[in-house]
Amino acid sequence: MLDSKISRRGFIKASAATTVLVSAGTASFQNWSSKYVKASGKTEIKEIASTCNGCSSKCGIIGHIKNGRLWKLTGHPDHPSSKGKLCARGHGYATLVYSKERLTQPLKRVGEGKFEPISWDQAYKEIADKLNTIIKENGPGVVSLTEDPRATGKFYSPRFIQALGSPNYYTHHVVCSNSRDAGFFHTLGVTATSADIGSSKYIMFIGRSYGDAIRPSSVQSLADAKEKGAKIVIVDPRLNNTGNFANEWLAIRPGTDLALVLAMSHVLIKQNLYDTEFIKNYSIGFEEYAKELENYTPEWAEKLTGISADTITRIATDMGKAKPKALIEQSWRGAFGCNYENSTETGRAVALFNAMLGNIQQQGGSIIGAKSHLGALDPAKYPSPKKPELKKAGQEEFPLAYEEQGVATIVAKNAMEGKMKAAIFHHANPALGYGNPKYMKKAFSKMDLIVTIDVQMSETALLSHYILPDVTYIERDEAIESLSGKTPGIALRQQMVEKVHPETKPIHQIYSELAKACGFSQYFNFSLDELNEAMLAPTGITYQQLRQKGTIMFPDMTVELGKMPELKTPSKKVEFSSEKFKEAGFSPIVKWGEPKVSPKEDSFRLITGKQAIHSHSQTANTPILMQITKDYDLERIWMNPVRAKDLGIKDGDLVEVKSSEAVSKVRVKVTERIHPEAIFVPSHYGITSPYQKTAVGVGFGYMEHVPFDFEARSGAGNIQEVIVKVRKVKG
Amino acid sequence: MVWGTTIAAYLFLAGLSAGAFLTSSYISRKYPKAVTVRMTGRFISPVLMGIGLLLLIVDAEAGLKNPLRFIYLFTNFSSVMTIGTYFISFFMLAGFYVALMELLKKDVNKWIEYIGVVFAIGTAMYTGFLIGVIGTVPLWNTAILPILFVVSALSTGIAGTLLVSGIVNKQVVHLVTSVKKIHLSLLAVEVFLIFTMFLITSTSNEAAAESVASLVYGEYSMIFWIVLVAVGLLLPIIVESLELINDRKMSQTNEGLQVAAAGSHSIVGTLVTEMSVLIGGFTLRFLILAAAVPIAFL
Amino acid sequence: MARYGMMIDTRKCVGCYACRVSCQMQNELPVEVSFIKFHEIETGVFPNVKNEIFAVQCQHCEDAPCESVCPTKATYTTEDGIVLVDPEKCIGCKYCMVACPYQARTQDHLTGVVEKCRFCVDLVAEGKQPACVSTCISTARIFGDLDDPNSEVSKAIIKYNAKPLRQDLGKTKIYYVR
Ligand SMILES: Nc1nc2c(c(=O)[nH]1)N[C@H]1C(S)=C(S)[C@@H](COP(=O)(O)OP(=O)(O)OC[C@H]3O[C@@H](n4cnc5c(=O)[nH]c(N)nc54)[C@H](O)[C@@H]3O)O[C@H]1N2
Ligand SMILES: Nc1nc2c(c(=O)[nH]1)N[C@H]1C(S)=C(S)[C@@H](COP(=O)(O)OP(=O)(O)OC[C@H]3O[C@@H](n4cnc5c(=O)[nH]c(N)nc54)[C@H](O)[C@@H]3O)O[C@H]1N2
Ligand code: SF4
Ligand code: SF4
Ligand code: SF4
Ligand code: SF4
Ligand code: SF4
Ligand SMILES: [Mo]
After folding, report:
1. Could you say which of A351, A648, A686, C8 has the lowest number of CB atoms within 10 Å?
2. Residue A85: which of C86, C110, C137 has the nearest Cβ?
3. Which residues, if any, are the signal sequence (chain C) (predicted)?
4. Helix residue ranges per DSSP H, A357-492
5. Whose CA is nearest to atom 7 of ligand 4?
6. C96 CB near a chain B CB, below 8 Å?
7. Residue range A656-683: average pLDDT?
């Protein structure tokens, strides 16, 4: 028999419930949980399906609601990212809804770091007036909107900026995957493939860590593959937390992944292990590439990468033999998302290596996903704004960048040059995370209008003229999200609890009301529900059903493996040689290129990456997550013992990190798990906003050391082209 | 440190209290004339035990918030703490009774005093067994530890009793020479036990070796060598030995006897030694708790 | 009557802390209180390095040391072999914390009660999996009846030759694969 004395405790404290209810708005999550939930040990629990906002994976979640308050979350079993599981952030970030440090009302800046609350009407009116004046004086090309695209934003934000007549819509990919996306897009016609990990026999990860930069279902499929005996190779200057799954860790010199992939491609050709049929039928320009590859022998790569020629040959050979159930996982940010001057080329080389294995659209290979067919608003009733004729700022300079994402940091550069006057930031923290914070601050100070829509006082918000408080994802409905992948589907974010702060508003409402103030309410004359109904129409699913289930997959639309789709490249084939690259002034075929900077004997390269418990800057102020950092000193930088010894540094010592841009102090984790040339910096620390009391002062801001820069091809931030010196300091 | 200063103080006071009770019972038999010493022992014993218990209660946060829960302390006979709770309860009952009789200037019921003696010994032993049964901490988990704690309890008991009686009445201290002799031998035994314990545990177990290392040359070495060994053990051993020699000399001459009887020679020596024994007694418990290294389970 | 137990596969664990946070939410623990603690063992020299991650919580010992020392009987073992703390009996004396060989117990300073993994008795009573098990992103955790040779956990323990952390310290109900 099971004894349930735990929940009995609840009844004793039942009287506490009413008082806590009254102070709902300000009660911290823990306050609430220790008093309120326990007070209702046996009340009925409502379950609401929704989606997580802890990171870009947007997993399906089930919210468990006790007496109108969020208690806990579980993973949605049907959602392709969660498959029933959630990561630590997924569980913990939800406590944001009850955070004491949320934005609760519209704010207007009245001095550096000083704000005063204003009414929504005043905010709308003043923002609209300024936008209209700026556009009247300079044309619409000087206004911009940047965001981390999530379901509602994806629909509303571009529409809003277009209604203003501007094409300048940007996403955070400039410091995420712009390089990989450009490389893949011009090679395979998609910015990313997905990997059929569970069925693969040989999997190589290049700077991609499923165990750190989490999507729960990916880790599960890797576990499945491992169980089935797949060979797993991790290429990373650091033994990341996915290391346990790996048969082999290749501790590569950072920034040289391109050389590795080129040499492996060389081996495939040398050993005649590439898929000639596939190349003949589905690609162009292979001969040229093969000729170039002759230069890139494993011996050549050994010198650059530090990985032995034998190892390179052996792995490439084994992968060639295992094809098509062998692949280099498409990666994300880690090695070639936005890091080095050669990153776009690395992206291309990886896509091409997979093509040489003939693994595209094959079981155990790289999958070009399917999209669900969703409906649109009836244009007769709900007119769309005209597509602006102007070119998106940055497109001229970086024609290879994936256009829908753009090069978001061009906003700062143009502002610096007086060519960008207004910026709206929604769900993004560019002042801390996109580019050098000093540069960003200076650039922002030159703009006439910055509006930030956020849930907390971010560094970007601090630099804004107006701050508009969003509700949290626990308190809002959103537009339907289309899930693409091997099997497409749809997911819905739904409101779980009543708004905690009455003055906060969901983004669709903010845009619609601001549109009215700006004078183009005709483009936002629909409700969110009407939009969702219209999107759902062709699927045969009712809104009610979707609300019930939260996530619905379309197994009938699963991509047919073994059948090569027509690609969205100019040639409709895999492009070993790209005209687009030629037009843009680059080599049409991939060639080796050095990173911009390299460390010397006495210096290091800074590299970065995720930790399982945080997402960029957004989760740092979450006490239940930051406590883990504190318990395990996770904000420390990693250093190899050989280098540490030379510098007289011991584990846990305080050091000074000095680059061309900044000086920081932080503690060190001395570990054999990192390449001697590299210092690894976990990505989520160094919050400077004093309003984020839990986060401020923990660790240091990586971007402070990154020179403001653009990678030539994709415009990405080149965020690992950073050399630092480290010395021990007292403390 | 799961158990810290508060629990160290509790263990110390419980031992001291038991030791004081035993000292006073011994004195009442051996030196019927040393009334002050006897009374002092009988008064401080229950008071100090009470203070110790209060510390325990303060450290038990959940009990402090819900005092009725302390009733449950009597329920688990497989727990040394439950056994100890009984010991302490009986000991304190007897202690209070004896103190009350002393206060009322009535005769103490012999049998109740014997019960008190038995449970005083039990209490002193309990303070050692409480941690001595913890297999997780090899430094504690030795047969020596309870003996060490009993010895230390007696020596702090004597020290506490003599210190307070000395303050109350300068002369009495010199009346109880055999107590002083016992005291000296207890201190010597303590030194022996501590180092034997270190030797045995640190050679038999890694965690214990770590504990001992932290005491002998690590984190706690300063406190260990200076406060415990020098101040708490060697200083009283030396001063007490000198005093005993001195006492012997004095008792051999007439003048000496007179001086002693008049109590005119200084008792500073006594005060200093007893004080340092008490400091040592507390430090011993503190260090034993602080230096606890649990077994490595990985 | 069952004898509940768990298997944790350290070869799969990525140290993601999802189990820790889901447990805190499930059990409504304060931020500072966690039932699961993490230990890492790094061996080897660059680039031949191995890093083992151990998620350690109450091992639900048989003849649990914490239970025998607990003076109030606040710590007890259910018929299903789950070692629990009755929060209304615990005085917070921490004797159990001292006695636990796995340092699996923590004190909740809000209530003063000493707590530890409860094997999610409430969920298990409803036939569900413990929170840390159901959320484990790498399926490193398996939970079930150790007495039932056909349970997933019993089979996995045999298949992977999983062992208690310290077999010499007495029987426990969490088995580790390393
Ligand atoms: N926990 C967590 N998960 C997340 C996110 C998060 O913020 N936190 N964000 C999500 C988002 S937006 C993204 S883009 C993905 C990113 O997913 P990933 O790209 O997998 O994540 P990162 O941790 O940035 O980088 C992965 C690895 O790249 C390694 N690396 C660094 N430099 C080099 C190099 O030069 N060569 C090679 N080969 N490896 C290198 C790092 O050591 C790191 O282990 O994660 C998603 N998931
Ligand atoms: N050092 C280092 N830096 C990195 C990375 C790294 O690995 N290392 N990774 C890079 C990567 S991959 C990426 S994708 C970028 C991400 O960079 P960003 O997209 O800027 O992500 P965050 O820094 O988390 O900022 C997100 C902002 O959105 C706000 N927000 C959260 N929820 C909501 C909401 O519901 N509504 C609104 N309106 N706002 C909300 C948050 O409070 C926060 O201010 O960071 C990059 N920066
Ligand atoms: S991976 Fe984690 S944080 Fe990201 S969406 Fe999924 S549960 Fe949320
Ligand atoms: S692991 Fe510790 S807390 Fe759990 S049963 Fe064993 S002794 Fe008790
Ligand atoms: S702290 Fe509570 S559970 Fe632990 S031994 Fe004391 S009374 Fe028992
Ligand atoms: S079984 Fe339940 S109580 Fe125990 S660690 Fe897992 S989630 Fe926490
Ligand atoms: S959830 Fe699973 S993988 Fe993550 S830390 Fe816990 S046991 Fe390890
Ligand atoms: Mo990203």
Report:
1. A648
2. C137
3. none
4. 410-416, 430-433, 437-445, 459-462
5. C100
6. no
7. 98
Superfamily of domain A194-367: Dimethylsulfoxide Reductase, domain 2 (3.40.228.10)
- Interatomic CA distance for residues A711 and A698, integer angstroms: 30
Strands A169-171 and A143-147: parallel
Indicate if the pLDDT at residue C151 is higher than 70.
yes
Q: What is the reported pTM? A: 0.94
B21: CB partners within 8 A, 6+ apart? B41, B42, B45, B91, B95, B98, B116, B117, B120, B157
Residue A392 has pLDDT above 70, yes or no: yes
How far does B280 lie from chain C, in Å, by closest CA?
24
- Ligand nearest, relative to CA of residue C64: 4
A10 touches chain C (CB under 8 A): no
Going from N- to C-terminal start, the domains of chain A cover: 4-98, 124-174+373-555, 194-367, 604-728
Q: Low-confidence residues of chain B, pLDDT below 50?
A: 264
pLDDT computed for residue A42 by the predictor: 61
Amino acid present at A401: A
Pairwise CB contact (< 8 Å): C169 & B295 = yes
Is the shortest distance between the CB of C64 and ligand 4 below 6 Å? yes
Residue at token pair 């029933």: A84
For residue A174, give the amino acid letter.
Answer: V
Tell me the three-class secondary structure of A202-223, residue by residue: EEEEECCCCCCCCCHHHHHHHH
Are the beta carbons of C111 and C126 closer than 8 angstroms? no
User: A132-171 pLDDT, tens per residue?
Assistant: 999 999 999 999 999 999 999 999 999 999 999 999 999 9
Alpha carbon distance C168, C153 (integer Å): 22
Q: Which ligand lies nearest the alpha carbon of C108?
A: 5
Tell me what the mean pLDDT of segment A160-183 comes to: 98
Residue-level pLDDT at B256: 52
Query: Residue C148 is encoded by which pair of tokens?
Result: 């039932």
Asked if B111 is an interface residue toward chain C (Cβ–Cβ < 8 A), one would say no
Label residue C102 by pLDDT band (50, 70, 90): very high
- The C-alpha of C79 sits at a distance from chain A's nearest C-alpha, in angstroms, of 6
Structural domains of chain B, ranges and CATH numbers in brackets: 5-290 (1.20.1630.10)
* Residues A34-44, mean pLDDT to the nearest whole number: 53
Q: Which two tokens stand for residue A314?
A: 């052996």
Residue reference for tokens 């990666």: A331
pLDDT at A657 (0 to 100): 98
pLDDT in tens, C52-97: 999 999 999 999 999 999 999 999 999 999 999 999 999 999 999 9
CB spacing of B298 vs C165 below 8 angstroms:
yes
CA nearest to C9, candidates C157, C112, C141: C141
Beta carbons within 10 angstroms of residue B92's beta carbon: 22
User: What per-residue string of b and e applies to A573-584 under the rule 16 or more CB within 10 Å gives b?
Assistant: bbbbbbebbeeb
CATH of A4-98 among 3.30.565.10, 3.40.50.620, 2.40.420.20, 2.20.25.90? 2.20.25.90
CATH number of A124-174+373-555: 3.40.50.740
Residue with CA nearest ligand 4 atom 8: C66
In this predicted complex, what is the ipTM?
0.94
**Which ligand sits nearest to residue C53's alpha carbon?**
7
- Helices then strands, counting H and E runs in chain A, come out as 25, 27
- What architecture is domain C4-177? 2-Layer Sandwich (3.30)
Q: Which chains touch C (3 or more CB pairs under 8 A)?
A: A, B
Residue in A86, A245, A672 nearest the CB of C18: A86
User: Which whole number is the average pLDDT over A437-459?
Assistant: 98
